[in-house]
Amino acid sequence: ELNYSSDIDLVYVFRDGGEEVRLSRVCEALTRALTDRMGRGQLFRVDLRLRPYGGTGPVAASMRSVESYYELYAEPWEIQALLRSRPIAGSPDTTARWEAMRQRHCFKPTLPAEAIESSLEMRTRTERGANPADIKRGAGGIRDVEFLVQILQLVHGHRSENLRVRPTLAALAALEQHGILDQTVCESLRAGYTFLRQLEHRLQFVHDQQTHLVPTSEEGRRRLARLAGVADWEELAHLLELHRRTIGSLYQSTLNPAAESSPDRMVIAEATGSLGHSVLQWFDVLPESETFYRALVQNRDSLERVETIARFAPRLLPMFKSSVVLTELVIGGEVEEEFEPTAAIEALALDAKPKAIAEAYTRSWAHLCAQWVLSGSGDLCRQITALADTLLRHCARRLYSEFDIIGLGSLGLEDMTLDSDADVVLFVSSSTHHGDAETHAQFLLSLVGQVKRLGAPIDLDLRLRPEGGRGLLVRTYEGFGRYELESMEMWERFALGQSRLVFGSEDALKLVRKAAYAQPLTPERLRELLAMKRRIETERVLPQHMRRETKLGLGGLTDIEWFVHLHEMRYPTATKAGECLHMEDRIRTLARARLINAVEAEQLLSAREHLLTLRLRLGLQGLKKDLLPENPDKLGRLAHAGGFKDGNEFLAHHESIIEAVRTIYQEGLERLKA
Predict the structure, then answer these.
(1) Is the dihedral of CA 596, 598, 599, 601 positive or negative?
(2) I need a surface site. Which of 27, 274, 311, 502 has the fewest CB within 10 A?
(3) At 168, is the secondary structure helix, strand, or coil?
(4) How far apart are CA 653 and CA 385, in angstroms?
(5) pTM of this structure
């Protein structure tokens, strides 16, 4: 885990019976070779102070004497440092003894309370002496994550081999896997640690400085923001504060003595049980946190809403802990009342700062999701899509652009879930305005990207445009018509069939719909499309995940969408292709056209609802995108969110649904091929 200007901490050990004086001189010469500044600088900064007895000890020591030191004299902080040690070079015997020593001292079945207290006291002293601008040693810094992880490894490492790993992120994953830390806590620590380590690299880019201090000068801050890939210092400062507050809160709630908690906080920690860390990290970082804890103690309904969100929608916690407004909606119960989710963005001035846009979008998005989790009703996919539409329209209007925005994929179908990209293609009616439209499109991408970096869950994707990443961002009507006649492939026509106007002129949508159905679906073209679908399945889904992938897997959402759209392309007149927008209406149209029977239509409709709901719940729980978890605890939580008694009952229900979808899909293809 070296950064750009790290010291490398070394310990020199030799085989028992070696000549200490001679070998020490060899090691001193090696150190000089690594550290002396030459014509092109130095290789490394070498630090030998972690060796036995520190700066007063011999430069090199025999393995027997090192073992004796750790057995008799090592301080708790030295055992903690040993946890992260690894042999780099040496004889197999010596390296094996070092690893055995590490296992013996770092992963004891019981760890004395004094040892933990000693490590925590040392961390507290370091933090008190650190500059508040120090992202490594200061409160909520890199060291807090490392200390938290290492202490938990020392306490629990005896339980399993994979808890004894050295890298911080790998250890976090193991702690989550074993249920020692909640998934939400691990996600927050992982995100904060990654952000701070990347910022640490950027601080040290300039002049190879060995620093962890955020600059105080305006120029230094502007430069750091540019290196970090954000718009300005204000944006970077906001992200930095949020991550440090979260890390500091989790460090305190996980490792600090409960005696430091207020009575109300302790009551909530006990009442929420295994969700305690998640709930505490939510409220600890908020201003007037004690007022919130008091409200939760006094109002059981408020606490139930908080627990429901923490259990079934941990993905939302970072948004709630950074927003007093959202938290108050949950505490007071207003989160369950009707509201207009797009109003906050529509009310923004066209010159509103990106931060204001991001906050309005994120607040409305989180409010919608929380309301759905608590009530279990409403069409969340369509509401998320409407919110994305409103954001794109706002961004387009503030650019005074003349291009049209056509939504494709989930955006086009109004089926966006939590991690859906907003797939769009852009058009301009006249070549006269094409240059301006291309510039505005670049600004649109930049602005939406900036809003995303500020925490808004939105991602704009233009890769489905003509010629993909090589093509122009905006196409003229004439240019698109020419491309459609000369170069458009069948899969592009297929993608254009899921199109909808988001912003601009209906003429653009007519142009796209015409291209989508311009070529009849001959047997050869059908084979071409099915070959592409098989490639998608084999290249983007692992074989062992084919029955667990809710979108691209067997019997997944893609099977339903392809089944419906292939029939529309084959029988455009009977299905009124291009006239119906929503997938429910399109499935019913197939039934009315007698291309499927009533039972099949109902099976597809209920399967689609099940799979979309499942994608939403997977996203809200922060699980791997679209993939059913194998972990029994995570699967159980997913099952309970859907009203099933356990994971097995849920899996049986899911299997019956995807089997029915796959059967309908395959039988439909056989009819189309005939």
Answers:
(1) positive
(2) 274
(3) helix
(4) 28
(5) 0.80
Please write down the long-range contacts of 562-566, taking CB distance under 8 Å and 24 or more positions apart.
Answer: 562/533, 562/665, 563/604, 563/664, 563/665, 563/668, 563/669, 564/590, 564/604, 565/494, 565/497, 565/498, 566/521, 566/526, 566/529, 566/668, 566/669, 566/672
At residue 257, the pLDDT reads 45
* Separation of alpha carbons 418 and 615, rounded Å: 8
Q: For residue 587, give every residue at least 6 positions away whose Cβ sits within 8 Å of its Cβ, in sequence order, or none.
A: 560, 564, 596, 601, 604, 605, 608
Distance CA 617, CA 634 (A): 11
At residue 673, the pLDDT reads 87
| CA–CA dist 569, 565 (Å, integer) | 6
DSSP letter at 256 equals S
Q: What integer best gives the mean pLDDT of the chain?
A: 92
Is the Cβ–Cβ distance between 96 and 141 less than 8 Å?
Answer: no
Q: Are 24 and 59 within 8 A, CB to CB?
A: yes
| pLDDT over 90, % of the chain | 74
Whether residue 383 has pLDDT greater than 90: yes
d(CA 651, CA 659): 12
| CA 373 – CA 311 distance, rounded (Å) | 10
- Count of helices and strands (H, E) across the chain: 30, 9
State the Cα–Cα distance between residues 380 and 366, nearest whole angstrom: 11
| pLDDT top residue among 612 and 469 | 612
Q: DSSP secondary structure string, 349-393?
A: -TT--HHHHHHHHHHHHHHHHHHHHHH--S-HHHHHHHHHHHHHH
- Among the residues of 49-91, which ranges form H helices? 63-72, 76-83
Element (H, E) at 500: strand 500-503
Query: For residue 171, what are the CA distances in angstroms to 146, 149, 165?
Result: 10, 7, 6
Residue written as tokens 């029988």?
A: 571
Asked if pLDDT for residue 401 goes beyond 80, the answer is no
CB contact set of 110 (below 8 Å; sequence gap of 6+): none
Q: Write out pLDDT tens, residues 482-538.
A: 999 999 999 999 999 999 999 999 999 999 999 999 999 999 999 999 999 999 989
Token pair recorded at residue 611: 């799979």
Q: Return the axis-axis angle of helices 183-205 and 142-156, rounded to nearest 10°.
A: 140
Please state, in angstroms and rounded to a whole number, the distance separating the CA atoms of residues 443 and 498: 26
Within 10 angstroms of residue 53's Cβ, the number of other Cβ atoms is 11
Q: Which residue has the higher pLDDT, 416 or 274?
A: 416
Give which of 480, 388, 377, 373 is closest to 425, Cα–Cα: 480
pLDDT > 50? residue 239: yes
SS3 at position 424: strand
Q: Quick one: 162 exposed, middle or buried, by C-beta within 10 A (0-12, 13-18, 19+)?
A: middle
Q: Rounded to an integer, what distance in angstroms lies between the CA atom of residue 72 and that of residue 531?
A: 68
Report the distance separating Cα 246 and Cα 283, nearest Å: 10
Consecutive H or E run containing 286: none
